[in-house]
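Why should sequence recovery work at all? Because a backbone constrains its sequence more than one might expect. Tight turns favour small or flexible residues, buried strands favour hydrophobic ones, and helices have their own preferences. The token representation captures these environments compactly. In the example below, the structure is given first.
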């Protein structure tokens, strides 16, 4: 178990936020890689119930291959039924417009991008859209303005890690395209920027300057962190518990019990 702990102080009540990422939900009765991805999401939600979270965030790749309304509507129904407030952002296997429509949040669209700022409790959070592998100039300018307005630590949810993470297959083939530009915007912030992301299907915590980057494992499968070519490492699925206790932010990745280790059939 890895616990990352930043001396990041906020004002507000203690909060528990759960991040779930890279669900890769497929059509009904479709089990990509022989994995029952719908059951994985339902099992994850069952597991997190006992933590009594205040808020959930789904950080992209809701759909398995590409955005499909039927899949978003199923996830939307599941999340509404779960009954805990939540936010959602798009990954590279998603369609931002479809997400905004299916989750009834079209007011948060900026053109074709789905990015927004909101407070979870009293804690300022930014939600970015990197679904096309990079951010528009408009979105980057919006991010600069948002950071400028917050003279304090801030939490950012985005799909892609804004850093190469030492995972050769992902770093070489699927890294964020405007990484240097977005890093320089984060570095200009005078306070800590806590980024919670997914996309890489690994567990990693990285720190560079004022930037704490937390990569959360997938609900689908995890990728081998040493291989140049795509290789599944294991099938233990996970979520991240983010806690704000007495003003200190910490986070822990929790793996679900019962998932099989080993190589997937292909
Ligand atoms: Fe993914």
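From this structural description, the recovered sequence reads:
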């Amino acid at each position: 178990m890895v616990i990352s702990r930043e001396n990041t102080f906020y004002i507000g009540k203690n909060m528990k936020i759960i991040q779930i990422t890279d669900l890769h939900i497929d059509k009904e009765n479709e089990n990509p890689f022989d994995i029952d991805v719908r059951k994985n999401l339902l099992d994850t939600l069952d597991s997190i119930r006992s933590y009594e979270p205040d808020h959930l965030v789904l950080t992209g790749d809701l759909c398995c291959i590409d955005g499909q309304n039927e899949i978003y509507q199923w996830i939307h129904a599941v999340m509404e039924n779960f009954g805990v407030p939540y936010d959602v952002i798009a990954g590279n296997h998603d369609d931002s417009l479809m997400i905004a429509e299916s989750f009834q949040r079209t007011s948060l669209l900026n053109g074709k991008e789905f990015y927004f700022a909101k407070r979870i409790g009293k804690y300022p959070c930014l939600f970015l859209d990197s679904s096309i592998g990079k951010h528009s100039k408009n979105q980057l300018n919006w991010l600069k303005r948002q950071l400028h307005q917050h003279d304090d630590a801030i939490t950012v949810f985005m799909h892609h890690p804004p850093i190469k993470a030492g995972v050769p297959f992902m770093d070489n083939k699927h890294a964020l395209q405007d990484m240097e530009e977005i890093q320089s915007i984060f570095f200009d912030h005078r306070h800590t920027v806590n980024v919670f992301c997914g996309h890489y299907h690994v567990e990693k915590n990285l720190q560079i300057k004022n930037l704490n980057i937390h990569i959360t494992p997938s609900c689908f499968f995890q990728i081998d962190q040493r291989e140049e070519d795509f290789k599944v490492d294991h099938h233990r699925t996970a979520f991240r518990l983010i806690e704000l206790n007495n003003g200190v932010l910490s986070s822990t990745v929790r793996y679900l019990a019962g998932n099989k280790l080993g190589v997937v059939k292909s």
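A few observations help interpret the result. Residues 69-82 form the longest helix (14 residues).
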